[in-house]
Amino acid sequence: MLDLGIAAIVAARMGSSRLPGKMMLDIAGKPMLWHVLDRVRQAKLVTEVVLATSTDPRNQSLVELAENMSIRTYSGSENDVLGRYVEACAENTNTVVRITGDCPCIDPAVIDSALAFFFAGDYDVVTNRSSYPDGLDVEVLRVSVLRWMNQCVKNPKHREHVTSFLYSGEVIELSIGRMLHDYDISLLKLSVDTQEDLDRVRGVYEKLGSTFCLEDILALEEIGGF
């Protein structure tokens, strides 16, 4: 029986240095963050989507966008993203899906697959980062793991990147499952950090519309559609 307290928490803020204000930049007539939140909430196994941003006043537009989509928001620390994730969890949250706000091509089916993999293996943590594209990366964690890290992790770098501590070699007692694609497609970049990334993602939306999956993107690449 699947866990009913499954929160997909999307971390986003306006203070990007490489592409300022990228969360609200237009893709196919909607802000980038709108697409991320809308695609995440299409995952069938997710019971709640939460926007986790910071108290920086620049992020108020993100809060308003999420609230207009009837998505719960939490505003916390700008740099302590680990703490922000923990505090964004509701009382009944047992499982957290970690999504970053610069992934407008995130695939709901990939989220569901990661959750199914997580529950089937009874893992503490599941990641698909080793063979999936940057921009379709998903992590699933027991909320108890997040709370444990929040108590013991002091390094600001690990607190900013949330789960990097888990892969640092310092943790041996947790079961970490790695969900692999049929073949390695990790070199395909679909997150948005630069103007070049944004142009690439806009191209995907121009060719595929707003309803597409990973396989549709791969087909575009195979026929030279990028």
Question: Tags for this entry?
Answer:
alpha/beta; globular; 9 strands; 17% strand; 226 residues; seven-stranded mixed beta sheet
Set out the fold topology.
Layout: E1 6-11, E2 26-27, E3 30-31, H1 32-40, E4 48-54, H2 60-68, E5 72-76, H3 81-88, E6 95-100, H4 108-121, E7 125-127, E8 139-142, H5 143-152, H6 156-160, E9 176-178, H7 195-208, H8 214-222
Parallel strand pairs: 1-4, 1-6, 4-5, 7-9
Antiparallel strand pairs: 2-3, 6-8, 7-8
What's the quick description here?
The protein is built from 8 helices and 9 strands.
Could you describe the 3D structure shown?
The chain is α/β, with parallel strands linked by helices and 226 residues long. Helices cover 35% and strands 17% of the residues. It has helices spanning 32-40, 60-68, 81-88, 108-121, 143-152, 156-160, 195-208, 214-222; strands at residues 6-11, 26-27, 30-31, 48-54, 72-76, 95-100, 125-127, 139-142, 176-178. The strands form two sheets. The chain has a seven-stranded mixed sheet with strand order 5-4-1-6-8-7-9. A two-stranded antiparallel sheet has the order 2-3. A hairpin with a 2-residue loop joins strand 2 (26-27) and strand 3 (30-31). Helix 3 packs across helix 5 (143-152). The protein is globular, with a radius of gyration of 17 Å. The mean pLDDT is 93.
